[in-house]
Design goal:
By secondary structure, this protein is α/β, with parallel strands linked by helices. The protein has two domains: 176 residues, Rossmann fold (3-Layer(aba) Sandwich), CATH 3.40.50.11930; 174 residues, 3-Layer(aba) Sandwich (Rossmann fold), CATH 3.40.50. Helices cover 43% and strands 14% of the residues. The chain is built from 13 helices and twelve strands.
Length: 388
């Protein structure tokens, strides 16, 4: 793992001399303008933004939600989608001009790809109006592939903006691309802290492999299906459990074909949330997440599976290698090796009660350490947003 050249401690957050504490206005009470995606549609970043927004409100921080979301997911775009995005971002710019008069804190989750130019415009407007600016990075796209918009965004007001990254490796790699910045680390682990439970033994039966996501090619659905069919061909007693909305017609047809071929070995339970989603993870023996998504950063679903004590086999995009680096029996591998290595690992999986409990306990203990550190990081972020 690379070592970041700038410490992630709060001492490195650059604060302009003209700013009031926590970006407070004349009344001394912080006001936060939060710009980013919020459900619907539901994505990991949108859900995390909503949780942060609701937490700030619960802490008594006056917070305005400025939505960049439009109907439709990033995995399924067309001309109408881009027209809606352009209109939405024009409205966002006007909204910023109004909110900036309150001289508070601007918090933004920037877009990637062509959408990063919208984010650049929003940041330029915000640095001229708000007393404090935080940019929370939730995409690896412009880290894996240098972006002119991201470079301009970074250099425009380098000394006035605090960056928030999901991991030390993410911070290091961003700075390799765009130069040193003031930053904080705030991982997503704390979002699953209340889902951690004592290891349990499920009822006997076949090996249960699971996948939960927006079901599409980008998120690895077809690799999951290939792993399942490969294991069946090897003669393993295995079931496939799928959850989440179907995004692409090819996915829907493949699920139907798998069900026709393999009968009750295939279970599609649709979108899940809350207790039903927690129960889904706890019913599994292994969780698969071979994502190909170019914006993948630190997927909530991986932490959710680890919170149930379930080993995870994923591709090594974004922060995923860091997320799994200390988790028992979990692995992140390249796209090329995913199929063979995952099938081999599942074929050797020991499901004896004693081994299962020990494995789950090790995974949960690993995650508890992550959650404790993440809670401290999240508190530091909340303080920087005015939540004393």
């Amino acid at each position: 793992m690379r070592t970041p050249q700038v410490s992630s401690g709060m001492e490195n957050v650059v604060t302009g001399s003209s700013r009031n504490a926590h970006g407070a206005g004349q009344s001394g009470v912080a006001h936060v303008a939060m710009l980013g995606m919020f459900p619907p549609p539901t994505t990991g970043a949108a859900k995390n933004n909503l949780i942060l927004y609701e937490t700030l409100l619960a802490r008594g921080v006056e917070t305005t939600q400025i939505r960049t979301s439009v109907s439709g997911l990033a995995h399924k775009r067309n001309l109408a989608y881009h027209v809606r995005r352009a209109l939405r971002n024009g409205w966002v710019t006007l909204k910023l001009l109004v909110e900036g008069r309150r001289a508070g804190i601007f918090y933004m989750v920037p877009d990637a790809g062509l959408g990063s130019y919208y984010s650049l415009i929003h940041m330029i407007v915000a640095t001229g109006l708000f007393s404090s600016v935080l940019i929370h990075h939730r995409s690896f796209r412009y880290i894996d592939s240098p972006s002119r918009a991201a470079r301009l965004m970074t250099t425009w007001a380098r000394a006035r903006v605090t960056h928030v990254f999901l991991s030390p490796e993410m911070a290091a790699r961003f700075q390799e691309q765009y130069g040193p910045v003031a930053f904080m680390i705030a991982t997503n682990a704390h979002f699953v802290a209340d889902q951690i439970a004592e290891p349990s033994i499920r009822s006997p039966g076949p090996i249960r492999i699971g996948h939960l996501s927006n079901l599409c090619r980008d998120k690895g659905f077809f690799l999951v299906a290939a792993v399942f069919e490969g294991l069946v061909e090897r003669g393993l007693d295995v079931e496939l459990w799928l959850a989440g909305p179907v995004i692409e017609p090819d996915v829907d047809e493949t699920i139907k074909q798998l069900s026709r071929t393999h009968g009750d070995r295939v279970h599609y339970v649709g979108p899940l949330s809350g207790a039903s989603k927690v129960a889904f993870y706890r019913n599994l023996d292994v969780f698969l997440f071979p994502t190909q998504h170019t914006q993948e950063a630190q997927p909530n679903v991986i932490y959710e599976a680890l919170a149930a004590g379930i080993p995870v086999y994923a591709t090594s995009r974004g922060c995923i290698s860091e997320m799994l680096s200390g988790s028992c029996d979990s692995a992140a591998t390249s796209n090329e090796n995913y199929l063979s290595l995952t099938m081999s690992a599942i074929s050797k999986l020991d499901l004896s009660d004693e081994i299962v409990v020990a494995r789950k306990r090790a995974i949960i203990e690993f995650l508890e350490v992550e959650c404790a550190e993440s809670k401290k990081q999240y508190e530091a972020l909340l303080i920087s947003l005015g939540a004393d």
